[in-house]
Write a structure and sequence with these properties.
Elements: H1 5-10, E1 13-19, H2 26-35, H3 44-51, H4 60-65, H5 67-70, H6 77-93, E2 96-103, H7 115-133, E3 136-144, H8 149-161, E4 167-173, H9 185-193, E5 197-202, H10 208-216, E6 221-224, H11 232-240, E7 244-247, H12 249-254, H13 266-271, E8 276-278, H14 290-300, H15 306-318, H16 324-341
Parallel strand pairs: 1-2, 2-3, 3-4, 4-5, 5-6, 6-7, 7-8
The structure holds zinc ion.
Length: about 350
């Protein structure tokens, strides 16, 4: 269906899967570089080419390389607070009313910050963002595939310690092909025992079995889950267990999780009532935003309309890592706007 860009942009949205490091704007990175006397290694145009994924990228491992150019600028309290505030500003511009911001604190501790300081700085930026722009948010802390057991344990402990300050859960990110989910079973268990929620990147470029293993480990949400298209039985079991897939269409094509729209499983999942939501994954690295993602779906699928968009956002909200009371408030706000704002 032909949807109007400004209507899509202005309708309230919920975003569950957004990485802080992959989404900090170039302008914010420039401010950080200037403030900290840490200039970009090259001019801004070339630097933009280093942090945005290139058209010939076809693998998750290549995609992840972009982050290596960004992370040197996210190593101080100032930088992390500014980056997370900047992300909320971007969210507010397209009326995201609730957002979960994920990041790997260990990746931000290369110049002396403690894990707790890194997380505290991000939470400060998020809170400032809520105060100024009215966008609610929570942080999710990423355990990294391939990192040490000690570091990943520290992330779980920090998530536990800072739960009351705005950390809602953990994620498992990084190269899925090299590090299967079961390697992290005991750490995910520990997080759940602490009352945290878990989402796991699975079935992005790996197998449907990785998704099922992640669910058995206690993940209540799955990052991407594209590989579920390959296995009807596992897909049905996940849907029955009300596991939501956090789909990120633009990113899914860039990482090679999907290679052509005819094979992209959005329609299959939607028609089979597999719970799904739409997110950007990485606004800067993928050069996208949530409005663009919905517009793209509207262009690719004839059945996709504002009501589809409403349902996707309500499903996302239902699976958000926040208390029911907050969900009810946001749900009323979203439903009200879809009634009045669609002309
Ligand atoms: Zn992701």
């Amino acid at each position: 269906m032909q949807m109007d860009y400004h209507t899509v942009k202005n309708l309230p949205k919920v975003e569950l899967h957004c990485h802080l490091d992959g989404s900090v704007s170039l302008a914010a990175l420039e401010s950080i570089a200037a403030e900290e006397g840490n200039p970009f290694p090259t001019d801004i145009r070339k630097f933009a080419g280093m942090v945005r994924v290139q058209p010939d990228c076809g693998s998750l491992d290549d995609y992840l390389k972009c982050f290596q150019s960004i992370l040197p600028y996210l190593q101080s309290k100032y930088a992390l607070s500014l980056a997370s505030f900047d992300l909320i500003r971007q969210a507010a511009e397209e009326n995201v009313v609730y957002m979960e911001v994920r990041f790997s604190p260990i990746s931000c501790c290369r110049r002396g910050l403690s894990c707790e300081e890194a997380v505290g700085s991000v939470l400060e930026g998020l809170k400032k963002g809520e105060k100024i722009y009215g966008v609610k948010s929570r942080a999710l802390l990423c355990l990294m595939r391939g990192d040490t057991e000690e570091n990943n344990r520290l992330v779980v402990e920090t998530a536990h310690d800072m739960k009351s300050e705005g950390v809602a859960g953990i994620d498992l990110a990084g190269s899925e092909s090299s590090f299967p989910p079961e390697n992290y079973r005991s750490l995910v268990r520990l997080a759940l025992d602490y009352g945290l929620k878990a989402t796991i990147h699975a079935g992005e470029c790996g197998s449907a079995e990785n998704v099922e293993t992640s669910v058995q480990m206690g993940a209540s949400r799955i990052g991407h889950g594209i590989a579920l298209q390959k296995d009807t039985a596992i897909r049905r079991r996940c849907a029955k267990a009300n596991i939501i897939l956090e789909m990120c269409p633009v990113s899914n094509f860039q990482t090679g999780a999907s290679t052509d729209w005819g094979a992209y499983p959005f329609e299959l999942f939607w028609k089979e009532h597999v719970p799904i939501s739409i997110s950007t994954d990485n606004r800067t690295v993928s050069n996208t935003n949530l409005t663009e993602e919905y517009m793209l779906l509207g262009q690719k699928y004839r059945f996709f309309d504002y009501n589809t968009m409403l349902q996707l956002n309500l499903t996302a909200l239902e699976h958000a890592f926040i208390p029911e009371r907050e969900k009810e408030e946001l749900s009323a706000k979203i439903k009200g706007a879809y009634q009045t704002d669609i002309k």
